Structure formats: C-alpha cells, structure tokens
Amino acid sequence: MTVKIVTDSTSDLSPQSAKELGVTVVPVYVRFGDKVYRDGIDITQDEFYQKLANSPVHPATSQPSPSDFADAYNRLAKETDEILSVHVSSKVSGTCESALRAKEMAPPGCRIEVVDSFSVSMGLGLVVMVAARVARMGESLQLVLEEVKEAILSTRIFGVLDTLKYLFLGGRIGKAKALLGTLLNVKPMLTMRDGEIMPAGLARTRSKGLDRLFEIVKNALNVQELAIVHSTNPGEAVSFKERLSSILPGERIHIARLGPALGAHAGPGTLLMALRGKLSNLLSESRAEPEKKGVSLPSIRLPKLNLPRR
Hints:
6-stranded mixed β-sheet; alpha/beta
C-alpha cells in the first residue's frame, strides 16, 4: 500500500497542490474574539487578511486537537497501513504534540510516524512535497522517512516584514520598539534556527530586503526547489519569481500564500522565501546585517508562535 502523507495547514500548501500530491491537510484554528474558524475551511486567506486589517480584535491561533488528527488517521487507515505525519516546528506550536497523542488512538496494524519539520510555512511545505513525491513512487515508509529527514536538514526559510504593527498587536514587541521601527521605516528580516523564528537583521527599505533575499539564493549551493510566500501582494511574489528565474529554473520556484498561523503576527506585506538545498557556511548562520550602522532596534523578539492549547 502507498504511504499516506498528513500535514497541517501551517504548511501553506494550496488546496490544489495538496490534492495533486495526495496530501491530507489538517487545519489549525483561527479565533477572532468569540468566533472560531478552521483555516482554509471556514475562512479563506482573503477573508482572514480583511479581518486582520479591520477587526478591533487581534486574532489568536491554535493547533488542531488530537481528535482532529485521529479522524484523519482513521480515514486514511482504510486505504493504507503506513502514514507519515509532518508538522510545524514543535518549538513554535503544540501541533506535533497533538499528532503524537492521536497516534496513540490509531487503529491497530497501522504504523504512523510523526515528524517535526523544525520549520513553518513553505519551509514545512517543501518537506511535505518531498514526502508526497517519494510516497507516490511506492517507496516504503522507512525510505520516505529518510528522505524527509534529509529534506529537513537542507531546507531554510528567510523573510522580510513590511511593518512591526502586527508584532506589537500580537504582544511580540513593545510599543516603543514598534514606534521606533515605524519612524525609522526599517524592515525587519527573519529566519529560522533550530526550529525557532529568529531575527535576521534589518533592511533600510523593502527593496533592499528583497535584494538580500535574492543574494541568499544567488550564493546558495545546489538549490533544488524554492517557494515564495506572500501574505497580501501576489504581484510582488510574481515579480520576485521572475527575478529569481535568472538564476534558478522557473519550474523549481513555487508561489504560495501565507496562512493565518504566521500571518497573524507578520501581517500584510510579508514576503517569505523557503529553499531546499545545500547552503554555504555563511548562509547557514542565517543572519543578515543591518543596512547601516547605528540603525537598529535592540532586542526585537520576532514571533515565537506558541499556539495556545485548546
């Protein structure tokens, strides 16, 4: 039987991509006040960002429950006896914990492996895509698992935010830092290290932030696949893909939409870039230098999601 792949909606895989790859996506929850929505089911990305901009209440997000995963595993167990469940970093969410608890409720005779991607958004999405492709080749769960672990080690994610407003609203930075960043008009950059979202420097302007992302790809070694993830600006994502196509074949570059889990903290205008491939020692440090000495926001704490338990 073919290994079945499960992930959560923080992977930012589009419904079309998930369907084509045969991936089951379990949605996270988004809450605006008393209203709770399932990501991608009860609320679209357009609706989420409209509410994010206009709602007087800042949204909260929470992981799928163990029963959500158990339902998915039980459905798939009718088709297979091997399931690989790959999820958002356990250092920013309890999603892996929910999946592990659901594993204990799995039907007898069905082997389930739960894997921590140590990433978010399409950093996770690219890993899931590898898993799905290998699984569709009819390979064993053990081989799919080995390929996934290799993909995790070779995947990095970087990004540039347009504003500090949503970090402030989400309680990630203080009002003084948010105000200072607005006055200086700097664009914070982020990356992930050891499964946590970390600051990666500051760009003087948005264009310089995009230049930095371009240089990361230009200097990277053996890039196999890349994803551009935007929150609210598809045109910019397409333009950036066209620019990257000068150094990487266009068919290796995907465009995706940033979902609520990270979008609630990053906000409109965010652009992320996930790439799978071997990076140089310099890039593996995942740090970008500020554009100009003396322009800094000390101790900016970029979003460690810590999705609340339901």
